Amino acid sequence: MIQKAKKFIGEVRTELSKATWPWDPREKGIKKYRELIDSTGVVLVAMVMLGAFVALSDFFLVNAVSAFTRTGIEERVRRPKFTQPEHPADAKENASTTDHSNVATSSEKNENPPEQPTPPPDALPAQSPATSPE
């Protein structure tokens, strides 16, 4: 078992000596890491450029889609309002209550709103002269 571990460590050292490292072991001080610093700078600049490209592409595509669909950014980020119930018993009432202010009703969709049906005459409460409000 120990012989296998020694053999493995020897092979690892041999392979690591063949590798090219991003620093020069003959240099002293910060000059030793010049290649490493330059490579890191290239990667950071490339990341910033890619991020700017993605952000600009997103901006232009969002505005192009908005122009075709006639929706503004305000409409896309509007969310229904939710109020915290003051008492746990009120939670059932607020659970079914949502804000539908941005949804068009049927009368807004059609130029001619549908007529309201009139109730039958026997469904109306009968008013006698004795119970009239006057």
List keywords for this structure.
single chain, 134 residues, mainly alpha
Strand content: under 5%
> Alpha-carbon distance between the termini?
110 Å
Count helical runs. 5
Label the structural class: mainly alpha
Number of strands: 0
Question: How much helical structure, as a percent, in the residues?
Answer: 40-55%
Inertia-based shape: elongated
Output the radius of gyration. 38 Å
- Ranges where pLDDT stays below 50 over 5 or more residues in a row are none
What would the average pLDDT be, to the nearest integer? 75
Largest sheet, in brief, is:
none
The run of helices and strands is HHHHH
Care to describe what's here?
The protein is 50% helix and 0% strand. It has helices at residues 2-18, 34-69, 73-77, 91-95, 106-109. The chain has a domain at 22-84. It is mainly α. The longest helix is centred in the middle third of the chain and has 36 residues, at 34-69.
Overview in brief:
This protein is mainly alpha-helical. The chain has helices spanning 2-18, 34-69, 73-77, 91-95, 106-109. The relative contact order is 0.04.
